[in-house]
Amino acid sequence: MELSSLLLPSILLFSFLCSALILFFKQDPPQKPTKSTILKGYPIIGNLPLFIKNYQRIVYWVAELTSTSPTGTVTVDPFVFTANPSNVEHLTRTNFHNYPKGDSISATFHDFLGRGILNVNGEDWLIQRKAASFDFNTKSLRAFVHDKVRRQTSDTLIPLLRRASRSGEVLDLQDVLERFAFGNICKLVLDRDPKCLSRGSEEGEQFYHAFLETSVLSVQRTLTPFSLMWKLGKWLNFGRERRLRKSREIVLQFVEKCVKSRREQSGGGGGSDFLSRLVADRSHSDAFIRDIMISFVIAGGDTTPSALTWFFWVLSSNTQVAEKIREEIKLVRSRHGDYESEVLTLDGLREMRYLHAAVSESMRLHPPAPLLSRECQEEDELPDGTRVGKGWTVMYSPYAMGRAEGIWGKDCGEFRPERWMEDGVFQPASPFRYSVFHAGPRMCLGKDMAYIQIKAVAASILEAFDVEVVEERGKLQLSTTMRMAGGLPVRVRERK
Asked: What percentage of the chain exceeds 90 in pLDDT?
């Protein structure tokens, strides 16, 4: 096939997009979502101009749209955006099998995630889900997770912050937390410490940067108006696709090396990490294990630092909450006679109910995964009466739901941990209202592990340091999770 025959569709597409943009900015949309849950598009080009205008700010856009709808649902054919708990329950549980991950999304992430649990449906998903469910529900795993967090916090994180306090250095707390979480999840999943927080390994540093770049570039594929555009770039090996290929190769080589090394060890497994458990089952191919490991690293390495970054940003303007958490730490330590370790025990963390509420409240407003998509297999009707056509994409938004007055009341925009407490006891919300950890059969298996890590790190930092945000922040940047645009520059000071 000649190059010119491939470039022609792209040239025509570019001309089409330019025409659509000119048309869009010259006139108002035919219908606005102030009274209706359906946005009707232009003749021929449909709603394409709306997506072109808003794809870079899609999280904000979806929240704006759903807030204007009486049912919390807006149709922008062929997409349905919803922040309605009844619809979320329908998508994730009641009619779960009609709403799998879409083929287009799976194809977009296939180069990175392959057949890993985050990117598959059907039998592949079920096999991995069952295997992971058994491991994630064991007490030994929770103890193993806590031990890894405790060691890295005491040995690396606290000393790093202490040095920054004494030197007066301004740190990007988001970068620090991302490096911490990435190292911790690699140790947990692969039993390999890339030492990216201490920057003590050239290979580990390369792997960390490659993993981060592969994640970001894979997400940028989904924001491309037409898949033909990124597929053409991949075929020609230029631009972002060239960078993606290089970073992906580094990631795959690193993980494959870990798998091969574990295979060669006597007995194949024997360790407490996930790789040892999978390798012990000889029925799994190396490629299959590699894909699972990459999914686990993403799931554990991206969500935790996202939650912690927004948590410390929120606390910077809610100092009274930080003081209540410190008082709770004192109470828990006195109850257990635990005055020496820098990280609370597992039992102590369980008793940190107000901290649990504060973390949950922060994730209500700033969920690590702000927008989740499913593809409708057969025509359907949602509980609020919205029609969904076959092949349409339905997106539910934890970000929009966390800010919905109909769900959380008139103070939904306020950071108020007390809304989760009743007589001093934490009261969880329905996963269909609070979909931060998803819901239904695909509900996050690592929820308990995430809370252990988040609470352990948050308590350790708050007890030892005052954290001051030194530059204005608050805008989101969409990667595999909701990052903070520009990082979070802070100055830390040791507490007496």
From this structure: 56
* Sequence-ordered list of residues with C-beta below 8 angstroms from that of 233, at least 6 positions apart, any chain: 239, 240, 241, 242
Domain ranges of the chain: 1-57, 78-494
* Torsion angle defined by CA atoms of residues 193, 196, 198 and 201, in that order, rounded to the nearest 10 degrees: 70
What residues pair up with 74 in beta bridges, in sequence order? 81
The span from the CA of 441 to the CA of 494, in Å, is: 44
CATH of domain 78-494: 1.10.630.10
Structure tokens that stand for 435 in this block? 């979909």
Distance, CA of 329 to CA of 327 (rounded, Å): 5
Neighbour count for residue 226 (Cβ, 10 Å) = 14
- Residue 82, pLDDT score: 96
Is 444 assigned a ligand-binding role in the annotation? yes
Of 16-20, 101-105, 113-117, 352-356, give the lowest mean pLDDT range.
Answer: 16-20
Cα–Cα distance for residue pair 198/182, rounded to 1 Å: 12
Contact 373, 349 (CB under 8 A): no
**What SS3 state is found at 139?**
helix
**Sheet strand arrangement including 489-494:** 171-172, 489-494, 465-469
What helix, strand, coil percent values describe the chain, rounded to 5?
60, 10, 30
- Asked if 276 and 269 touch (Cβ cutoff 8 Å), the reply is yes
Give CA–CA dist 315/80, Å, rounded.
34
Structure tokens at 206: 């390369």
pLDDT tens digits for range 409-457: 999 999 999 999 999 899 999 999 999 999 999 998 889 889 999 999 9
**Global pTM value:** 0.87
Task: Give the helix/strand (H/E) hosting 260.
Answer: helix 239-264
Distance CA 461, CA 467 (A): 8
Q: Is the separation of the CB atoms in 125 and 117 below 8 Å?
A: yes
**What whole-number distance in Å separates Cα of residue 311 and Cα of residue 456?**
13
Give the β-pairing of 476-478 and 73-76. Answer: unpaired
Three-state secondary-structure class, residue 135: helix
Residue 231's alpha-carbon distances to 119, 221, 480, in angstroms, are 18, 9, 20
Predicted pLDDT at 167: 96
Measured between its terminal Cα atoms, the distance across the chain in Å is: 71
The residue behind tokens 């635990």 is 338
**Gyration radius (Cα) of the chain, Å:** 23
Which helix (H) or strand (E) segment holds residue 160: the answer is: helix 158-167
Contact 445, 136 (CB under 8 A): yes
Pairing between β-strand 482-484 and β-strand 476-478 as defined by DSSP bridges: antiparallel
Cα–Cα distance, 165 to 177 (Å, whole number) = 16
